[in-house]
Structures
1.
Amino acid sequence: MKINFKNKKALVRVDFNVPLDKEFNITDDTRIKNALPTIQHILNQGGAVILMSHLGRPQKKRMDDGGIDVAKFTLRHLVSHLSNVLGLEVKFSPEIVGGVASDMASSLLPGEVLLLENTRFESGEEKGDEALASKMSKLGDVYVNDAFGTAHRAHASTTVVAKFFDAEDRAFGFLMKNEIEHANKVLNNPRRPFTAITGGAKVSDKILLIERFLDLVDNIIIGGGMAYTFAKATGGQIGNSLVEEDRLDLANELLAKAEAKGVIILLPSDSIAADNFANDANLKEVSSYEIPDGYMGLDIGENARKEFSDVIKSSKMIIWNGPMGVFEMPNFAGGTKAIAFAVAEATKNGAFSLVGGGDSVAAVNQMGLADQVSFVSTGGGAMLEMLEGKKLPGIKAISG
Ligand code: AMP
């Protein structure tokens, strides 16, 4: 980071949106751990750190009387764990802006850490309110954004606040910088053959991604529920599989565009079909184009796994977003697992692989393969939007 933090108060936006159990214990502290290098760096240089984050969706889950459920969504739940991992006593401000927050911020000494209350307790946060952002900015001398997971949101603490700091007084944290660099590596320096793997439930969620990939990659592998909309569009019988009837024309258009651009789209030739959306359903391995009535494709079949894996293993650059089947159920996780192993093997043989976007990240973690791919993104929606070619507001706000 270009800023010298000595004797500076750094206002740092982190993503501490961690999962909590019923007693408000943190069940997975990955997001906190991911922010530690940036926090430690500032402290080591002799700065003080003022942390801002959201937790959950308090505005959407207001109580019956319309009030914020402070007991549930307060960031106070994180203080003791954060103090433990940092090895110092983290101070907590019960408000984001206001007299208490500014008194606590102004009396903060170098080497100290102050955590502010949930930014989403302020109704102006998600609206990107300028007055709120201006008040936030007064708490620190410099601003650091390390919350890649919310970089696609133009909120007060993630984006608007940055404009109240001069260009030399605002910076990306290490996590955010790393994410941006890896996404840019894929987008700006493609190595060929370049294969994109997409999966998950819906074509409609991935249209922009597929369209963008048509200008970028050599092969697009399509698995998961979305494959059946393509199978039906090309005249297949898909039984009771997931389908978006209103996207059949679009699916054909995407196939035609791919052909015109010389991009190969691979659809699963066969599927594991089930007579029920349940792990213990009766199964049939069938052609993805001849799924009997009463059955639904819930995973890619053995032939598809082999065909997809062969293409993946001969690729030099790979992006993966979305599972190949209902991987949460063990009987339909085989396809996603086979693809994860193929991506790991390609990576071992020198390919660059990026796994980004919610469920494929969960799948790679679940299979213990996260350290066998080149990069696993921490930002689901944010990474997806970057790969779609959008300029994220949280990034623009820092780099201009
Ligand atoms: P997405 O959030 O769009 O990446 O979708 C992920 C979800 O798609 C996961 O919860 C999967 O269980 C689900 N999914 C994957 N394949 C299928 C399928 N063949 N049928 C129904 N749901 C699927």
Note: The first strand starts at residue 9 and ends at 13.
2.
Amino acid sequence: MILPLFVCPGEGVRREIGSMPNQYQLSIENFVGECEKARALGVGGVLVFGLPESKDELASGAYAPDGIVQRAVRAVKQEVPGLLVITDVCNCEYTSHGHCGKIVNGDVDNDATLEWLGETALSHARAGADVVAPSDMMDGRVGAIRRVLDSNGFSNTPILSYAAKFASVFYGPFREAAESTPQFSDRRGYQMDPANAREAMREIELDLEEGADMIMIKPAMPYLDLIWEARQRFDVPLSAYQVSGEYSMIEAAARNGWLDHDRAMMESLTSIRRAGADFILTYFALTAARVLG
Ligand code: PBG
């Protein structure tokens, strides 16, 4: 299991996310503390999301050498050695409009965005990230990131590609957590149509051709069939992201006394594993690790 964490500016910040009970926006020292817990419990690693000091049209906080993720990664690599650190490479937390890319003539411009993604991935690798994980779904991003990493001495930094990421309603709670709701339109221009299974396999194939080392299906539970299909077709490390909405549904039901929390959590994780995921990105990582003992 990999634990996603949200790191924010400031000191002593541990702000619970309203839409995701028991998940927090954490300033760097608290983020490091959470990483220590993850390592102590034997969690496989963390996935880092950043909330910048300020947002702009150019997502400059995403690729700033002293940006929030870059600083957090330096801190965790120094203070919690041995913990696997994956960084989310995307722009939506950093743009004033909340889209994952550069806006040109009122629309997200795929190719102009690739440059930002390459810069961001490189700055994360320089900060010490073990793996970079592009989640924006722009076409050609894996190849673009690979080229930038390779030509700057980071040919050994693997890319975990959110290869099949659907335009899902289940990201709703995350957008509150990461303050990344699009200010106009939606993400259906770059994320995938939930009805289209064949396109998912095609997207995975393309990402592998471009040099992805590991792939991800996202969300997880509504797409178990695709995790299974990808497992049959592709002999590479395969992951699934149990996203914010999947987490919050279980938390909400448990808080109402409608479901047994730990059993619902473990059954959902088991289903994702059974479908063929080698590893699971999940907000339950710490709790499930405690249950597993
Ligand atoms: C950034 C990103 C999102 C998630 C992960 N990376 C949000 C989105 O695409 O809207 C969602 C994660 C979750 O819901 O837990 N593009």
Note: The mean pLDDT is 95.
